[in-house]
Amino acid sequence: MGFIGDSIESLKSINVRQSTEQVITLGMIVSSALVIWKLLMCVTGCESPVVVVLTQSMEPAFQRGDILFLRMGEEPIRAGEIIVFNIDGRDIPIVHRVIKVHERNDTADFDVLTKGDNNNEADDRGIYAPGQEWLQRHHIMGRAVGFLPYVGYLTIIMTEKLIIKYVLIGALGLLAMTSKG
Predict the structure, then answer these.
(1) 124 is catalytic
(2) Mean pLDDT (whole number) for 37-46
(3) Rounded distance, CA 101 to CA 121, Å?
(4) Which one is catalytic: 57, 66, 91, 139?
């Protein structure tokens, strides 16, 4: 009958007990993923310990679609490090290299100036919020400590082409509902 026809027949034969078991299993999987994410947040000190590089601004160090692993400790940020930061009024994190650090003598606070390796501008002041000259500690999400090349490209494709996201979610849902144990 084919995959779709078999799937529909399988859906018709599901009883309440099977449905409840599948919902509980799905809930456990989602809960486990959330617990792992929160554990990573605690271990790394980052609100988002894993990010995907979305642009070519850091080539050749990182390519679009690379996954970065972040860590944020108490040690000071140094020039040459690659950091991920947010800009006030923007939701998307930015991955760039630190080119200058201005440490304040009387406190542990610091200001940072960044630049994308592949950008022609002298620094990133053009992409900061209006009137902002430096990044402060609260802007910085973490420093890159490792990466997986191109693994995050699937998230970029699903963000740019919503139909692919919906087809993938639908297929996974259908697979979960029709699987036998």
Answers:
(1) yes
(2) 93
(3) 18
(4) 57
